[in-house]
């Protein structure tokens, strides 16, 4: 049970960060995960909601999303329509409406959960994280996930404007269950050939990870000729673990099925919409 001695709601990130460096201090945004912490020694709870960092802004080449923005706000935003139906469909499958109304972008990324759909989606879209740890810094989301950022406050996410085609697939045992495995793919095409590829697998059950060997295998090849071949590659390479949801072998087999399905979606979209 939580045993909070002090609750603060600072207006400035510098102040929040300073308090955050005290022993047994925790940040809270949407509060969904913080409410479930099974520790009794939370002495300082630092509510980040008054810092601002909420909303979505078109900045030309990229889109800035404040860390306090709720998942439900991402779903209804006009600027984010740029990422097309796969984006809205993926968000619609996160938990329930109540969860999407509470969970924030910052809270979803900071916890470094393997099952965070937002992490897989934004990593596939090649996003950067801005955070404050005494000064403001920016890092790719994939670097952030493997780095040590204890005590840092995530302030914003920067997502490049879309190019090429992308898809997101996940497998869950029931609608509200977290994913057993999920996968995002983004492909840029020149002529008929794949110019660039990003493939990210999440819920392995470890944190989302890029599959660079498979990406490199695809580059320079024709998309439609790779659909039935690339699945074997990822099944061999992807690193998965076993937990109560599935064995590592089952997850590896799922990665093949999800990648093949995602490649088909990307191919369909590229046929309908041409090169972009
Ligand atoms: C039953 C249930 C099912 C769910 N299903 C899914 C699902 O299928 N897919 C999915 O993607 N998500 C799902 N979620 C949502 C999810 O994974 C997290 O609960 C949620 O994203 C956390 O966001 P929050 O804003 O509530 O974070 P909080 O609980 O406020 O914080 C989470 C952690 O991040 C830290 N933190 C918060 N904000 C910041 C910040 N700005 N900078 C640095 N650290 C910060 C906190 O100290 C805490 O350690 C589900 C949640 C629940 C409760």
TrEMBL record:
It holds the Pfam family FAD_binding_5. Keywords: FAD, Flavoprotein, Oxidoreductase. One of its GO terms (molecular function) is FAD binding. It comes from Mesoaciditoga lauensis. SMART domains: CO_deh_flav_C (SM01092). It comes from the Bacteria. This is FAD-binding PCMH-type domain-containing protein. Residues 1-164 form the FAD-binding PCMH-type domain.
């Amino acid at each position: 049970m939580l045993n909070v001695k002090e609750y603060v709601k600072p207006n400035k990130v510098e102040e929040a960060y300073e308090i955050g460096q005290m022993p047994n201090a925790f940040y809270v945004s949407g509060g969904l995960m913080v409410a479930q912490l099974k520790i009794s020694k939370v002495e300082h709870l630092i509510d980040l909601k008054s810092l601002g960092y909420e909303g979505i802004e078109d900045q030309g080449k990229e889109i800035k999303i404040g860390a306090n923005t709720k998942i439900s706000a991402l779903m209804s935003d006009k600027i984010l329509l740029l990422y097309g139906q796969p984006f809205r469909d993926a968000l619609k499958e996160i938990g329930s409406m109540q969860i999407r109304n509470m969970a924030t972008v910052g809270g979803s990324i900071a916890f470094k959960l393997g099952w965070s759909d937002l992490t897989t989606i934004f990593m596939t879209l090649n996003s950067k994280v801005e955070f404050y740890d005494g000064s403001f810094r920016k890092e790719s989301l994939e670097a952030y996930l493997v780095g040590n950022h204890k005590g840092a406050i995530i302030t914003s996410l920067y997502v490049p404007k879309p190019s090429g085609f992308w898809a997101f697939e996940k497998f869950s045992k029931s609608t509200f269950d977290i994913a057993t495995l999920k996968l995002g793919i983004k492909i840029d095409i020149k002529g008929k050939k794949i110019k660039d590829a990003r493939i990210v697998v999440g819920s392995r059950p470890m944190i989302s990870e890029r599959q660079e060997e498979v990406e490199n295998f695809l580059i320079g090849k024709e998309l439609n000729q790779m659909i039935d071949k690339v699945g074997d590659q990822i099944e061999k390479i992807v690193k998965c673990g076993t937990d109560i949801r599935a064995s590592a072998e089952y997850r590896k087999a799922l990665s093949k099925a999800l990648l093949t399905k995602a490649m088909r979606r990307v191919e369909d979209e590229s046929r309908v919409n041409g090169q972009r």
